[in-house]
């Protein structure tokens, strides 16, 4: 059984494990044997192989009376074919202090391309002048370089140093990536006064996982501003040295019904918890959620504007007027922001501009819009609070420790008749009290200093329910005519609304017709509740099946376009859990006449199967009564997450669904 490895620990509490000898990998020492790889994690689909990826972070004393973090990385990659040439372009992010002069420095860079020519290893050096500097954001620049002389079978190798003044930016390490890796290693040595939280996760066991104490001496110098003399001093003590390594790391391959790769691949990340400057003074960087919520509500980039008078909000409050009851007032306010403002970015937990500017421009990111909604509620005398969360695409956020960098989304929570309602005005066609599937990622956090509680956002709390009904009778022309009606689930309804809003109504209607064989004609397509966002979309149309009339045997697919055509779980095995965005309940009902002049020769067998006894079920019940056929097919999934050990069971379950729903009824001509 594969178990998920996840821990959030203090370094001083981590226990050690016996280390194993690592392979000898020296920079520039390339042999003919390195061009031929044999490993259980390398196969014909491996476009590249990371031969070695070795990193370390150490602290050094500097001449500014402080410490410098020194991160070193050495990486060697075999490019097996042209599909891997993208791996020959490397980007290294560097951080700066924005308004301060502090910045990270990129040093001691070396890079070579190696090719095997006439049995000899030929090296091509990448000149330092070929390294480009690009500005990525206000706080980030990127060093970017591309290896010269690459071809199929080349080995590329580089190493560099990043010297950083930022304690909070102790570099994370990713053991797993797009390509298999023969050896991935990371060492970190931390002075005794620094206390970091470590997030260690993944599904691959470590070859080396050890933490030990080593004596370290740090020399620090600083100029005395009064005397202009340089003062030197040493800090001695037991540092914490951690060493992790994994041998033969398989490539990470995204699979259906999985959250973002950050949740799944083997990696280690760090968060500065505190610095102990003396026996009597410790500076804490990770606070309680109550303190963090208080700080956020004072932050000008988050909640500071919620506590101001905001007289400019008198205009929308007056415009919205007063409704007879509280829930109607809340609904009207929500719809006002949803329908009149455009969201430019669904991936930000901080304001991009003032709330007043958002109101004036009628656009902003998700934080701008939902904090504006919160501000309008507060101005109207409602009790409203922001909720911070991480979306499924962003990965899980730690539920106990406030690590704000893990979050990327904001909702509004408003109280109506003593009942809380979560609202998101950043999606134009989202119903009242409805949320986008991307936010159901375990939990969010209420940003209330008095009660900073977790807000449940479990996928198991959402059920996608779809009911399809087809009724068909024989007509006077010798064919079969009928009516199709399908009340779609809310997620499917959102997709339909978004597609039509994007001007693709005709292609959507054409896709319905294309989903049927040529002998089936579709007409009078209607979409009900398309603009009633609180309700699911109802699809209705008429069907007409032309019968040839002279066929002795007639094969009929009773599920039409509603069958599962493909098993979503096609891989032979899976390392990671299955994580569905919601529960599922699909019901399909068919009532039809036996075609005139025919009788039922073969009928699919009825089945009823449970998934793990209580995790779900599938039933396919078909019967003939007099001259009518009745079919009932239902798929019900009552659990959103399945461990990797259940993958084979889940794959076989959906495989049976696909096979059963593809079965045909055989009609034979009556003679």
TrEMBL record:
Q: Tell me where in this chain the DUF3857 domain is found.
A: 103-225
Question: Which top-rank group of organisms is this from?
Answer: Bacteria
Gene3D superfamilies linked: 2.60.120.1130, 2.60.40.3140, 3.10.620.30
The cross-references to InterPro entries, in alphabetical order and at most eight, read: DUF3857 (IPR024618)
Which residues does UniProt assign to the signal peptide?
A: 1-19
Sorted alphabetically, the keyword list is: Signal
Q: What is this protein called?
A: DUF3857 domain-containing protein
The protein's organism comes out as Sediminibacterium ginsengisoli
């Amino acid at each position: 059984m594969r178990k998920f490895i996840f821990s959030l620990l203090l370094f001083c509490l981590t226990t050690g494990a016996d280390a194993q000898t690592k392979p000898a990998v020296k920079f520039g020492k390339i042999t003919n044997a390195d061009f031929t790889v044999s490993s259980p994690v390398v196969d014909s689909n491996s476009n590249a192989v990371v031969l070695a990826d070795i990193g370390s972070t150490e602290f050094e004393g500097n001449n500014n009376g402080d410490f410098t973090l020194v991160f070193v990385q050495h990486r060697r990659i075999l490019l097996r074919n042209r599909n891997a040439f993208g791996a020959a372009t490397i980007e290294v992010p560097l951080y700066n202090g924005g308004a301060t002069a502090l910045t990270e420095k990129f040093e001691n860079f070396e890079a070579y391309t190696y090719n095997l020519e006439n049995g000899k290893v030929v090296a091509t050096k990448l000149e330092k002048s070929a390294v480009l500097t690009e500005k990525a954001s206000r706080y980030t620049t990127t060093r970017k370089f591309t290896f010269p002389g690459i071809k199929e079978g080349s080995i590329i190798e580089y190493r560099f140093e990043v010297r950083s003044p930022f304690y909070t930016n102790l570099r994370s390490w990713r053991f797993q990536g797009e390509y298999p890796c023969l050896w991935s290693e990371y060492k970190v040595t931390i002075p005794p006064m620094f206390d970091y939280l470590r997030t260690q996760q993944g599904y691959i066991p470590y070859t080396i996982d050890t933490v030990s104490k080593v004596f370290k001496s740090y020399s620090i110098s600083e100029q005395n501003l009064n005397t202009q003399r340089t003062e030197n001093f040493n800090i001695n003590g037991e540092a914490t040295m951690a060493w992790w390594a994994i041998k033969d790391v398989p490539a990470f391959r995204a699979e259906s019904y999985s959250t973002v790769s950050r949740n799944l691949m083997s990696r280690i990340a760090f968060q500065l918890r505190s610095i102990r400057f003396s026996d009597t003074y410790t500076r804490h960087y990770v606070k309680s959620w109550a303190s963090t919520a208080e700080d956020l509500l004072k932050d000008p980039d988050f909640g500071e504007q919620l506590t101001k008078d905001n007289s400019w909000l008198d205009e929308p409050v007056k415009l919205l007027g007063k409704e007879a009851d509280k829930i109607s007032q809340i609904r009207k306010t929500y719809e006002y922001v949803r329908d009149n403002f455009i969201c430019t970015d669904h991936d930000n937990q901080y304001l991009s501009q003032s709330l007043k500017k958002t109101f004036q421009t009628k656009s902003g990111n998700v934080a701008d819009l939902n904090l504006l909604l919160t501000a309008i509620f507060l101005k109207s005398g409602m009790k409203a609070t922001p909720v911070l969360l991480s979306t499924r695409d962003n990965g899980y956020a730690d539920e106990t420790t406030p690590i704000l960098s893990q979050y990327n989304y904001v909702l509004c929570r408003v109280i109506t008749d003593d009942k809380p309602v979560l609202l998101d005005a950043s999606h134009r066609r989202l119903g009242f009290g409805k949320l986008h599937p991307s936010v159901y990622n375990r939990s969010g956090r209420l940003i209330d200093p008095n009660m900073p509680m977790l807000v449940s956002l479990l996928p198991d709390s959402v059920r996608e329910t779809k009911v399809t009904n087809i009724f068909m009778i024989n007509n006077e022309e010798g064919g079969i005519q009928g009516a199709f009606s399908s009340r779609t689930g809310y997620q499917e309804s959102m997709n339909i609304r978004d597609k039509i809003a994007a001007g693709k109504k005709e292609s959507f209607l054409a896709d319905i017709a294309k989903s049927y064989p040529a002998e089936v004609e579709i007409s009078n397509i209607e979409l009900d509740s398309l603009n009633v966002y609180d309700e699911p979309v109802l699809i209705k149309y008429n069907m007409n099946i032309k019968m040839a009339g002279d066929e002795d045997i007639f094969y009929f697919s009773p599920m039409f376009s509603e069958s599962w055509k493909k098993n979503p779980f096609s891989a032979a095995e899976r390392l990671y859990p299955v994580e569905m965005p919601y529960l599922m309940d699909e019901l399909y009902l068919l009532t039809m006449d036996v075609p005139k002049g025919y009788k039922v020769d073969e009928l699919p067998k009825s089945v009823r199967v449970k998934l793990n006894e209580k995790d779900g079920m599938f039933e396919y019940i078909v019967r003939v009564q007099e001259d009518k056929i009745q079919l009932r097919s239902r798929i019900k999934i009552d659990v959103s997450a399945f461990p990797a050990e259940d993958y084979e069971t889940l794959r076989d379950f959906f495989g049976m669904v696909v096979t059963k729903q593809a079965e045909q009824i055989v009609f034979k001509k009556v003679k």
